[in-house]
């Protein structure tokens, strides 16, 4: 069976052998995350980060056990979201900065009830689990990308397939022209800058980096604003047009332009990276286990379990510090005081041996195969989980139709981008085209 640990080459950060060696956030840590998780499970399942809480006098805590993470994310009242419309203090005493689009998102869903209504009424019809309206479009884009390289026998899989596919899909869903993909890619990169270049478990940028991020995203705000005006006057079959016309029943009114801008901001940031990284990691699993490739190719009923297991084994977003404690808590016998920030390490929870049988293996017959933590759980589950799952399954269904084998080509370093996401920098593959 395919192994859970991604292939890597040595870098300047040494592989951890004890809990004293574990640092999930230093440069180069990405290449040894999967060696660190078993150590944390056995030696420090609730791992303290001194001085990294809601104030410099409080601490942060990394949760790595499935039951703890699941408890926290399913109870946003007991464990509120750390980000709110009222900026929290940074460890140095400064205030976090929120841009207008983030504030508009939060203003639409300040409570669990409105969060649920927001998803059900505004986003699920377009990117939710039942949004099959996108099937034909995703299939068309998938085939177009495969057509570009299917006769070559080899492919730069990240740049020629895994990355452009979700970009094309999200542009189409929102109603942006495909000719604007380069601009959208630049704005998408700016949106996730903190998760790539940010420091520590809270992914903090410097004031200069934050100012540059906002400067770039001002262009995106203006771009979306122009399209909102256009689609109010000339609605089409796309998500922005829908948002300009719909009456939000939870608030009994139409959405403002700023609110629509905020929703689009969230869709773009959530609709690109996860899918790209998931598909790239799944390709590695298939290269490392040719029998797995042939099994799924012969029986497409195993395709969904494969993509779910791929996301469990190699979570695209490894973890986030998005909850804090409003009272003293205890996890795994460790006392966590009020005011602590909780870093939910999805990837470690997904490999918890107390929750998953043979956690390091792809098991296509695993019960409850979709209960991993990759998209979080509970009322604040990722709103784009449905369309990401659909893209992954369609992508591999069409790939398996059109190629008979898949293996690594020369030139791979198996290195990942910095930050909190499992972003493979490149992946060179060779394949046999189906007859």
User: How many helix segments?
Assistant: 17
Q: What name does the CATH topology carry?
A: Cytochrome p450
Q: What's the total count of β strands?
A: 11
| Head-to-tail CA distance between termini | 27 Å
Oligomer: single chain
What's the CATH architecture? Orthogonal Bundle
Strand fraction equals 5-15%
Main sheet properties:
4 strands, mixed
| Order of helical and strand elements | HEEHHHHEHHHHHHEEHHHHEEEEHHEE
Q: Mean of the pLDDT scores?
A: 91
pLDDT under 50 segments (min length 5)?
84-99
Q: Looking across the biggest beta sheet, what order are the strands in? A: 1-2-9-6
Global structural class: alpha+beta
Q: How many distinct folded domains?
A: 1
CATH class: Mainly Alpha
List the helices and strands and how they pair.
Blueprint: H1 33-43, E1 46-49, E2 60-63, H2 66-73, H3 100-108, H4 112-127, H5 135-147, E3 154-156, H6 157-162, H7 164-174, H8 181-191, H9 193-197, H10 207-233, H11 239-245, E4 247-248, E5 253-254, H12 257-271, H13 273-288, H14 290-298, H15 303-313, E6 320-324, E7 329-331, E8 334-336, E9 341-344, H16 346-349, H17 385-402, E10 403-408, E11 428-433
Parallel strand pairs: 2-9
Antiparallel strand pairs: 1-2, 3-11, 4-5, 6-9, 7-8, 10-11
Helix pairs in contact: 3-12, 5-7, 5-17, 7-12, 8-10, 10-11, 10-12, 13-14, 13-15, 13-17, 15-17
């Amino acid at each position: 069976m395919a192994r859970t640990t991604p292939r890597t080459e040595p870098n300047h950060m040494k592989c951890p052998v004890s809990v004293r060696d574990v640092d999930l956030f230093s440069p180069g840590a990405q290449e040894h995350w999967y060696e660190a998780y078993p150590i944390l499970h056995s030696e420090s399942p609730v791992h303290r980060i001194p001085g990294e809480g809601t104030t410099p006098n409080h601490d942060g805590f990394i949760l790595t056990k499935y039951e703890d993470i699941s408890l926290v994310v399913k109870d946003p009242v007991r464990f509120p979201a750390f980000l709110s419309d009222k900026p929290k203090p940074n460890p140095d005493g400064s205030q976090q900065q929120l841009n207008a689009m983030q504030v508009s998102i939060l203003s639409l869903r300040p409570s669990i009830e409105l969060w649920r209504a927001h998803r059900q009424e505004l986003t699920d019809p377009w990117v939710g689990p039942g949004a099959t309206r996108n099937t034909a479009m995703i299939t068309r884009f998938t085939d177009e990308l495969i057509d570009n390289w299917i006769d070559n026998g080899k492919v730069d899989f990240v740049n020629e397939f895994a990355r452009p596919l979700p970009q094309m899909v999200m542009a189409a869903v929102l109603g942006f022209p495909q000719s604007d993909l380069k601009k959208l890619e630049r704005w998408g990169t700016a949106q996730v800058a903190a998760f790539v270049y940010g420091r520590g478990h809270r992914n903090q940028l410097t004031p200069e980096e934050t100012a540059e991020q906002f400067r770039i995203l001002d262009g995106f705000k203006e771009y979306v604003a122009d399209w909102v005006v256009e689609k109010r006057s000339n609605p089409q079959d796309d998500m922005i047009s829908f948002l300009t016309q719909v009456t939000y029943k939870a608030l009994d009114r139409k959405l403002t332009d700023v609110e629509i801008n905020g929703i689009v901001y969230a869709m773009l940031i959530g609709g690109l990276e996860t899918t790209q990284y998931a598909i790239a990691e799944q390709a590695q699993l298939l290269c490392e286990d040719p029998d797995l490739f042939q099994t799924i190719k012969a029986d497409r009923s195993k395709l969904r379990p494969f993509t779910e297991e791929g996301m469990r084994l190699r979570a695209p977003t490894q973890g986030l510090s998005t909850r804090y404690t409003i009272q003293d808590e205890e996890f795994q016998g460790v006392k966590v005081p009020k005011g602590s920030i909780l870093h939910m390490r999805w990837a470690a929870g997904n490999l918890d041996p107390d929750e998953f049988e043979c956690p390091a293996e792809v098991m296509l017959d695993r019960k409850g195969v979709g209960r991993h933590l990759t998209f979080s759980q509970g009322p604040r589950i990722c709103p784009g989980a449905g369309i990401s799952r659909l893209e992954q399954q369609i992508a591999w269904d069409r790939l398996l139709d059109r190629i008979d084998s898949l293996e690594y080509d020369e030139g791979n370093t198996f290195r990942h981008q910095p930050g909190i996401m499992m972003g493979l920098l490149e992946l060179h593959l060779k394949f046999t085209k189906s007859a």
